[in-house]
Amino acid sequence: SMFSLRLPPLLHSLLLLLVPAPASSLALVRPPKRVAVVGGGFAGLTAARNLASHAGVEVLLCDQRSYFEYTPGILRAWVEPDTHTRLVKPISKLLPRTAQFQRVLPGHTTRILESDEGEGCPTPDSSDAAALASCPLMLSIRKDAEAPLLEYPCDFVILATGGELGPVSDDRQTADGSIKARRQRLNEQVASVMQNSTSALIVGGGLTGVELAAECAEHFPRGAVTFAVGPTLKTRAADPSCAADTGEGILPGFADARTAVGGGAPHKVRVIPYVKRWLEDAGVRVLESWAVPPPPGA
């Protein structure tokens, strides 16, 4: 793994869309030679690293930031800012030497142009313009009417632009995409919010809510953190993929037991009571009643 943290990973919605070349090309028949990846988060970085590990495949990764940030750990950084040094690394240091990285400043537009005549890119060691014209796709990045920042002929484009996480952890719209600028902004945010607060209210008992309540319990005095989760419904789903039935309560959509491996043999642990007990022992008030009852059938 790239990072080692004591925090449990959170669930993030990541978009990974593979845009194929036109059906008339041979790119679907033979292995790709050139692949462009747009987005350097979890999905994009994983795709770029895996593809670049294959001989004969050239990979270009583009992102608005020059670094990768382990976003699930940001909540910890809000109560312990020094943690951030373990959450970020330059993207260039996380890619194999065979892969390329291009930072794209905010305000640029990405276009994917198709060619009906493209039969597949040549070998990666070829830089001949005429040969590259045989690539079925062209990744074009430019700003308004300016000359293109980048034009990259390729067999495939992977769109891994992810979701918005701002303003808590998203600095993609800032001109300075360096780690130093990101850390300075994070410290300013933490100082303006946490240092001027004496209590916290967390609404929602999902993974992010549970972790944030636990982090706030370490920062604020006992009794200063309220965790409003609502009552646990009998109809709550046991499958996290069942988004239609949140079930309310703590960790909605998750089964109440999992296999835990500790110092002895694997055993069953009731997760939800454990979470509630841990938070209450830490001085968090867990509110399981409705502040405003929902409409019937909601």
TrEMBL record:
Q: Give one GO molecular function term.
A: electron-transferring-flavoprotein dehydrogenase activity
Q: GO CC: one term?
A: cytoplasm
Residues spanning the signal sequence: 1-25
Q: Which residues cross the membrane?
A: none
Tell me yes or no: is Cell inner membrane among this UniProt entry's keywords. Answer: no
Is Oxidoreductase among the key words of this record?
Answer: yes
Keyword field: FAD, Flavoprotein, Oxidoreductase, Signal
Which ranges carry the FAD/NAD(P)-binding domain?
34-219
Q: Which family does it belong to?
A: Belongs to the FAD-dependent oxidoreductase family.
- State the name under which the record lists this protein: FAD/NAD(P)-binding domain-containing protein
Task: Give the species this sequence originates from.
Answer: Phaeocystis antarctica
Organism lineage reads as:
Eukaryota, Haptista, Haptophyta, Prymnesiophyceae, Phaeocystales
